[in-house]
Amino acid sequence: MLLHIPQVLNSEQVAHFRERLAQAPWADGRITAGYQSARAKRNLQLPETDPIAEKLSDAVRIALKRNALFLSAALPRRIFSPLFNCYQVSDGFGNHVDNAVRYDRSQVSPLEENGHPVRTDLSATLFLSSPDDYEGGELLIEELLETRQVKLPAGDMVLYPATSVHRVEPVTRGERLASFFWIQSLIRNAGQRELLFNLDMSIQKLERDHPGDPTIVELVGTYHNLLRFWTDV
Ligand code: NI
Asked: How many angstroms separate the alpha carbon of residue 151 from the centre of ligand 1?
């Protein structure tokens, strides 16, 4: 399932992010690429220990915790600290699959020298440039029957299965800024996660259309009992 989550950041927040990112010390994007993807990747990235990256990363996390659509769809257990990248003219990232496990160095305990392991169930890209600012730079995600092309307004985010083959088309004009990260879900199985999301959306619709209907309580009970059966903690 691909999900478009509008306005994770509002226009003021996007402007603030862009102002800070303009002063940031960008580095070669291959710092976080795995062996296979390093060959396909050409872009700039902020080192995760950079103070600007840390501040903005926290701001993305706060925005995500307030976003009901994101919480319902991802059912997050752990969120990898959001990273930031910049694709300039002729930069791109060829077909690849994201690493299955990432080690989040911002959440280190003494027993985890490499950082906290995060299983990447879902990938997310939060767009920080307006589509008018650049040409090319589409995120292409291969699904079973078709390849989906994603280029969203600044502040909007796409959530997609981390298992999918995907790429970023070369930028041919301007600059494409984004935040990207991974989520370990409470629900490992994508089909179960999607079913819970659909049930939650139906319950919310019922609450809007028929407030106070006693069936809502039963359905909410079913939702939580399924979550209890399937939760992976
Ligand atoms: Ni990727």
From this structure: 15
The pLDDT value recorded for residue 109 is 66
Q: How far is CA 52 from CA 21, 56, 127, 201, in A?
A: 8, 6, 18, 36
pTM greater than the 0.85 cutoff:
yes
CATH of 3-185, one of 3.40.630.30, 2.60.120.620, 3.90.960.10, 3.40.50.300: 2.60.120.620
Q: Would you place residue 39 in the very low, low, confident or very high pLDDT band (cuts 50, 70, 90)? A: confident
How do the domains of the chain map onto residue ranges?
A: 3-185, 190-230
How far is the centre of ligand 1, averaged over its atoms, from the C-alpha of 160 (Å)?
A: 10
CA dihedral for 157, 172, 97, 108, sign (positive or negative): negative
Q: Give the Å distance between the CA of 139 and the centre of ligand 1.
A: 9
